[in-house]
Amino acid sequence: MREEQALRRIVIVGGGTAGWMSAAPLAQLLGLGDHAASCEIVLVESPEIGTVGVGEATLPTIRFYNRTLQLDNAEFIRKTQATFKLGIEFKDWGHLGNRFFHGFGDFGPAIVNRSSILHWLRLNVDGALGNHEDLSTATVMARRNRFVPPAGDQPSAANAYSYAFHFDAGLYAAYLRDYAIARGVKREEGTIVDVSLRPGDGFVTAVTLADGRRIEGDLFIDCSGFRGLLIDGVCQVGYHDWTHWLPCDSAQAVPCVRVEPLTPYTTSTARSAGWQWRIPLQHRTGNGHVYCSGYTSDEEARHVLMQNLDGAALGEPRQLRFKTGMRQKAWDRNVVAIGLSSGFLEPLESTSIQLIMDGVGRLIELLPDRRCDRHLADEYNRRMARQYESIRDFIVLHYKLTQRDDSEFWRYCAAMSIPDALEHQIETFRRSGRVAILDPDSFSEPSWVSLFLGLGCRPERHDPLLRQVDDQALLGHFERLRHAIAATVSDMPDHAAFIERHVCAE
Ligand code: FAD
């Protein structure tokens, strides 16, 4: 049997959200604070090259990440100016005036092994049952600006929902930096100007900083942002360009003052050549306009953003450019790209931080020794690609199902060809009322259904087994559920008051 060659040093290139979100769990896992630890972690960040500086909305799994690090929840919320997020409100996507919510959670408990919402759809043929969103506790809470965390182990049907956070990305990275450094991660400040490779296999052996310092390592995590210093600059793995499906390539971002009420959700409003986000934080509101430069100018995009702020801007908008897609390999040789260096999907469903968490989680699962076995890399790349593609399809769905034809951009989106897997997904739902789950690590059935229904796509036929349940019994069930949710939410505190009383006052 060949002897294992444990890693001696991991070098993380970049100190943005991805760099510090990678450093923190690795430091915890490798027990760096312990003198017996055999591996060290060095993180290099450049004082000259800034971070992307946006990225404020998350998905519920951020809570599991924070819990793994054993972060104190109240301290995390205070230090990052966080608010709670129950989902995303979409405005003007399906058509002008269209409004729907993608909430975190289900539409009530399953009935005879089938999702509640599928029963509801079968029964709601003529629209007599009202709005399905009344059966989503997260959505009802969001519409009324209420928040409390869901009850513990055995929540009632009306108390089953999930939540995530909005936070200041810069403050979160700083919080994790302190965490990682306290656990033994070494931070080097400097700009990498050269990379040394091992002859033969091309493994990276060291990076050299502008002042001549040389940092050697066995495994390099490339968190250098869009530039992909190692994964692109050195490994040149290639890029899957998805701009024909997701044509937005630019964004302008600007914070404005905090606006009341403090909404426990993100808002995404479709604009004539893209969409605008609104993310409420405790100390300010994050805003940005994501758009396609082929259909509008930067000046016009900036004007649209500034005209649609609901408070005074705190500065000038920041211009960002990107190309939607992913690296053909996130792991090549002894280089693993995490964060923007691995690819980019527009922030419509807040998935970038999720991809960072899953990237570092998978790396920990598949942690190599010094040889960086190719099969580990292949498995990592397979899982990352499946997740990226599944998220891509979910985002493309928002554009493809639009009925808007009021601008060139929306006419392009409605007519564009889409990935085969998404075509399959849409047709499966339209023809049979079923959701194909192509990647268990990405969006689940309630999320797909929220989008389908929100954008006006309804099934023509239904699962034949749904007929086993008596219609009258179902009607009674949905009526009781709707009332239980409304009553439960009525008793919940206002979102801002909850933060004030239970988090900031501690
Ligand atoms: P960066 O923040 O760019 O950090 C790169 C780091 O690499 C920096 O520390 C830099 O100093 C260092 N570096 C680069 N080159 C060198 C060098 N030569 N030498 C030394 N160091 C170097 N995500 C979400 O989950 N939710 C959102 O709501 C969201 N909104 C977004 C909105 C927009 C418009 C964009 C563009 C992105 C958004 N994201 C969002 C994505 C999110 O911002 C990123 O995933 C996250 O910030 C991670 O960035 P990063 O750390 O990979 O890169």
The largest pleated sheet is described as: 7 strands, mixed
* Major beta sheet, strand line-up: 5-4-14-15-16-13-17
- Give the DSSP E fraction (strand runs of 2 or more residues): 15-25%
Helix run count: 14
What is the CATH first-level class name of the largest domain? Alpha Beta
Q: What CATH architecture of the largest domain would you give?
A: 3-Layer(bba) Sandwich
N- to C-terminal distance: 55 Å
Percent helix, as a range, is 25-40%
Mean pLDDT: 95
Low-confidence stretches: none
- Could you tell me which ligands this complex binds, including any ions or cofactors? flavin-adenine dinucleotide
Key terms:
binds flavin-adenine dinucleotide; seven-stranded mixed beta sheet; alpha+beta; 506 residues; Tryptophan 7-halogenase; FAD/NAD(P)-binding domain; 3 domains; Flavin-dep_Halogenase_NPB; six-stranded mixed beta sheet
Give an account of the 3D structure.
There is one protein chain. The protein is of the alpha+beta class. Helices cover 34% and strands 19% of the residues. The chain has a seven-stranded mixed sheet. Strands 7-2-1-11-20-19 form a six-stranded mixed sheet. It has a three-stranded antiparallel sheet with strand order 8-9-10, with no helix packed on it.
In brief:
The chain is α+β, with helices and mostly antiparallel strands and 506 residues long. The chain has three domains: 9-80 and 168-240 and 324-389, FAD/NAD(P)-binding domain; 102-163 and 397-490, no CATH class; 250-321, no CATH class. The chain has 14 helices and 21 strands.
